[in-house]
Amino acid sequence: MASIATPPQRTGLLVIQPLKKRHCAECRTGPLALLVLEEGLPRCLDCADLGHLVFLPRGDTALTRRSREGSALSAVVVRFNRRRSRYERQGVLVEETALARAEKRCLADAEARRRRRVRDARRREAEDLRFTDTFAREIRRLFPGCPADRAQTIAAHASVRGSGRVGRSAAGRALSEAAVTAAVRASVRHTDTPYDQLLMSGVPRHEARRRIAGAVDTTLRGWHAGRAPT
């Protein structure tokens, strides 16, 4: 019988996923999906008194930790990687009851995390609404002629979380006059002038801005002076 590469010394029991077909040296069953080396000879899990354990693949750290903590008997499962010339962990063997308890705990944690995410999302939504209202009030303070619904639309667009827009910049969150004005100017440029059409027709951005600059400035001056557009 060809020898099996000697696994590394570890604390606790070690079970091997063999690369070649192996049979139990005691009961002759095989080929074995998992085996234990005793005095250099392969033993099946039943002969090694580990047959009542269930296999838990690696991947879920919390489930593995809790399963091993709750299992009176457990073993680490390894397989030899020829390319790397080393044994690599594949999972663990644990008692089925311990695994079931661990799964319940992890599911409870998952539900708790889900509820926390819902609470956080609601909190962020409320914060976003408050910030949008504050941003809209600042627009109306700087540009009293801007219609209230338009100010709210500008604020909502500029302050979308994760958008990278001016309302989410440090200056925007601080409600600096420059940031608020930039948001209003951008809205007027895209909504009240043919700027977008110029871009779609192939006019370079800087040239398109130059062409509509007068119309934008006129609207901003009117709003700043308290006059709504006619």
From TrEMBL:
Residues 138-223 form the DUF2293 domain. It holds the Pfam family DUF2293. InterPro entries: DUF2293 (IPR018744). It comes from the Bacteria. PANTHER family: DUF2293 DOMAIN-CONTAINING PROTEIN (PTHR38113:SF2), PTHR38113. This is DUF2293 domain-containing protein. It comes from Streptomyces albiflavescens.
